[in-house]
Amino acid sequence: MLSPDLARIRSFEVVPSLPEPLKPLLDIAYNLWWSWHPEAVELFIRLDRNLWHETHHNPVKLLGMVPQQTLDTFSRDEGYISSLARVQENLQRHMTRTPWLQSTEHRDAKDFTIAYFCAEFGLTECLQVYSGGLGCLAGDHLKSAAELGLPFVAVGLLYRNGYFQQYLNADGWQQEYYPELDLANLPLRPVSDSKGNQVKVTVDLPGRVVHIGLWLVKVGRIPLYLLDTNLPENEEDDRGITSQLYGGDMETRIKQEIVLGIGGVRALEAINIRPDVCHMNEGHSAFLALERVRRLIEEHDLSFDEARQAGAASNVFTTHTPVPAGIDRFPPDMVDRYFRSYVPGLRLDMEGLFALGRENVFNKHEFFSMAVLAIRTSSWANGVSKLHGKISRHMWQGIWPQVPESEIPIKHVTNGVHARSWLSSELMYLLDRYLGARWQNNPADQSVWKAVMEMPEEELWRLHERRRQKLVIWARRRLRKQFEARNINPDHIAAAADALDPMALTIGFARRFATYKRGNLFLRDPDRLMRLLSDADRPVQFIFAGKAHPADGGGKELIRQIVKFARESDAGHKIVFLENYDINVARYLVQGCDLWLNTPRRGMEASGTSGMKAAMNGVLNCSIMDGWWDEAAEPDLGWSIGRGEEYSNPAAADDLESRAFYDLLEQEIVPLFYNRDSQGIPRQWVTRMKKCIASLAPGFNTNRMVQEYAEKLYLPALRRGRDLTADKLKKSVELAHQKVRLRGAWGKLRVDMVQAKTEQAMGVRDALPVTATVYLGELQPDEVKVQAYTGPLDTAGRIVGGKPVTLKHDKSLGKGKHRFTGEINAINSGRYGFAIRIVPGDEIFDITPEPGLIHWEGVKSKPAAAEAVVAEAEQAAT
Ligand SMILES: *Cc1c(COP(=O)(O)O)cnc(C)c1O
């Protein structure tokens, strides 16, 4: 073998050569639009069904492998050519459809670009640059943004070895391996400049420069740029930076995040894209906020804070983590090594940078948190379900000292899933028949889905039974392959053919195996479980799938327990574990199971999306009240385990909640499923399926989600960003200076006197006049708002769910003293209270309160330590 050290190897590319009439297939193959259009997928399957499976559903590779003779035959097949023309036309229509914004009140928002950054993208099974929920959400986000025609670009990393592939050894212990992606045969291409060379950018790492190449994946009308450091000009180690997703150590992670955040901004710049809004989907990409500010400083000769206002105004940060342990954090000495030469460009010193990434800036040992960095550099933040929004406001309230939890500026946009990617094609055709084309074009419209209730029950049920049978047949094949690969004895391998019953109530559980998701909860009472499994008349079976993170021994142990139980009980054929969970496995499961099980510890699941995929297909959910289910659950859509209780003792919770699950199965789920009429149809079950689709599909899809992102976050960020950036960042500079002025005066603010007749009870619709005399020092009355923060009192005398009433400036009393007056209205009877506070006056602070700028009567204001350190750092750096 000739080794590269000995000889210069010249590489060249071989591309599929298609007969002229089939050439359009290439355009379709290189646009992932095909992945959510069954009629496009059908074109590839027709060429060669086996190759389709062999290539793991990769049309580019398939086109390169189909024998010439087959291609020639199809190029003369009129039926095929006319199908091809139809698909090509559909793709064309997608590319040119009138954008959704044009039909809204926001049609004046023009000529802008939103850049979406994420560490992983789950778009289709053959492009393995995703691990699970976060990636699938990002993929679905892009597909919906494409359908809506938003001006969107996306940035991610091209992991040459993807996420690990999973198999289990004979003991059920997870094993991992990382096959290399064959880039030349995937639906992506290098981004080339006018001379045909790949576009490259660089970032600095300690003592060296790292080169980054750009690749393009087309997702309908949206470009996704993937960054790759595996270039010959890089040192060996650096070539591996983008090798594995979530694979390396912390050092690898910080390098990846520098490439994604800083390299990502530079990559867009290199192809002349200067985004107006940047969306950090999770904190991995948060370094982008620094790079955007650095560019502004460089171009306009500003201080960090002068440029930061404009940068933050147009950054959106989405957090997906309800637990502190889930956040990326780096040790201070590591951050120091990687950013020492970068901070001068920010006109900060290292202390200033650390202040942006620490919750408690005085703790020199505190790790640098990417979530904190993202929060401190974005004016717009959100969690991913209603409950998660609340949990996030609680979790991050320390960043805004003395601000009531309900006013912490983290909103929520509940996740969704991309309807056409997850619905079975059978159900799509049924929906087309009964709902018309509207459900495809506007799945977020509630009224479109009402007609689901009119669909004949027989038809829906037969369709669903076919999906379950497909699932069982496919699962048996997969099991057989699993067993063969493990070299298990031939009897065992043969048994795969008898695994599962195509007619039995099938319960699916597929997700990452993390301990908090409690994949083994159903095993808690083995005797009770065995009774359910071995009921000959009303059988129940379980299908599991999911990977544990390579470093998560606890998660791997859960998998082992399930496999061991299945092996050692008589129920082996009724509990199966399918290896290597991915989008393809997910699709089979969420379309073919009857019941979708989810058992996280409450508060730990930010949203969860597989249950939405199931619901859309009429698969009923049975879940703990957590994440999305907490806001979706209604009695006749599925089942809830518990009512949202929180337990301090985990073992007690496991006992109670597993018991509640068995109770539901025995008393409600199994009887309902097996209650058949003379035609063999479980009418009440099917009615639930219909209600489930009709009421959950319109809300929990990504078209609704992306529209909400646009209206709540992207467009406001666009407007505010433009406002602050105009005229060489005039307003951004002013705002920075105003903050300095407010901070300087804030410590001297005082509420001297408050007058209100609170001794007498007032009637429900009466108004309570309030007068406050305050000392503002050198601040003018229009620079602040004096507010009565009012609401009902709890038993401890605290205001709950308070709302501010802004008082009017009534009179200047001289020497910095002012009188403000207003009225409080009580809406309901009960005990109420109010407290006088002072906050900054400009409305920009209404959306994003500024840390440290809130003064409550009788309380010493807590200055924002991080802001003070940043200000000092600016001084030190000039
Ligand atoms: C949908 C999906 C997930 C996320 O499911 P959760 O319910 O959020 O855990 C993970 N992995 C794959 C392959 C998926 O399709």
From TrEMBL:
The keyword Transferase applies. Its cofactor is pyridoxal 5'-phosphate. Residues 18-127 form the DUF3417 domain. The keyword Hydrolase does not apply. It catalyses: [(1->4)-alpha-D-glucosyl](n) + phosphate = [(1->4)-alpha-D-glucosyl](n-1) + alpha-D-glucose 1-phosphate. It holds the Pfam family Phosphorylase. It is an enzyme of class 2 (transferase). Its EC number is 2.4.1.1. It comes from the Bacteria. Keywords: Allosteric enzyme, Carbohydrate metabolism, Glycosyltransferase, Pyridoxal phosphate, Transferase. InterPro entries: Agluc_phsphrylas, Glyco_trans_35, Glycogen/Maltodextrin_Phosph, Glycogen_phosphorylase_DUF3417, Pyridoxal_P_attach_site. Belongs to the glycogen phosphorylase family. Phosphorylase is an important allosteric enzyme in carbohydrate metabolism. Enzymes from different sources differ in their regulatory mechanisms and in their natural substrates. However, all known phosphorylases share catalytic and structural properties. This is glycogen phosphorylase.
